[in-house]
Write the structure tokens for this entry.
Amino acid sequence: MKYLEYEIDSQIYTSPIIETYFNNKKWGFFDIETTGLNHSRDRIILVGILVYENNRGILKQFLAESLKEEELVLEKLVKEIENLDIIVSFNGKSFDANFIDKRYKEAIEWPYHLDLYTIVKKFSPLSKKLKNLKQKTVEEYMGINNTRLDEISGKESIELYFNYIEDDDLDAMKKVLLHNEDDVKQLFKLLSVISKTDFKKALFSDGFPIYANKDLVLVTKDIKIDDKYIYINGRQKKEAISMVSFGDSETLTQYRFDKELKKFEIKIPISKTGDISILNLSNTGVDISKLSNYTNVKEEFMVLKIGNNIQYDGILYFVKLLIERIVQK
């Protein structure tokens, strides 16, 4: 197996919402190269992962020098993945991560997965504006495609890889590595595309992580609001915990955290006036002063929904504060 490492002289994209929910975390931006699309018969031949932490980015590439080295490549990649707080891909949930899960010998403890393709497709108007949502097309729209150096397609990358392992064609190897390197570097820059999306709605709908401590990460799965309750359900990662509350004299918040199933469920009563759904924050135990800057909060009350319009911003931060309070009790 060939291993290459490069330092990246670029700063990660940031914004107020990134700083609120992902500040000071260890990021990974990854892409894989395979011999085809069928995980049953095709192999992973090259992986690239850009690890970003403490304002420093390192791009690592693991290249199989024969098809038999796939397992070794995956072992190295999984070790990197399981040390991350966040992993970023472009269509990685349906392809890259799924392919890795099928090919690797053990279950993988994936960190929070931010798939930019999914975010763009579901929570932005770009699918109607652009001819397609391929990574290079979105790069062009964002004005960042001028730094690409590789000129080959994924299909050509496969042909060149076999030229390398069968004929020891070093020029072919360099082209394959460059193709993967550019995809990962461009993915790193493409994080800025979230500025073109309704990212708050995306986090509300598809889930977001709460880093309770270094040993416990909770990821919301669904947040639902009906006429009587707000429900928050999700998964526990790393060192899961078990605890139950049916509400007490200080809070009406009910919850169940299950260590074995690695799940959690939270239910809080709300009230409704006309078409406005309201949460009494004094029933939750959170520090209300930390929510005072949100426009949907007045004194101890938070407006959750007006008609069908959900107030995503304030709700997200409330959920973060609530889960941190429960876990740290």
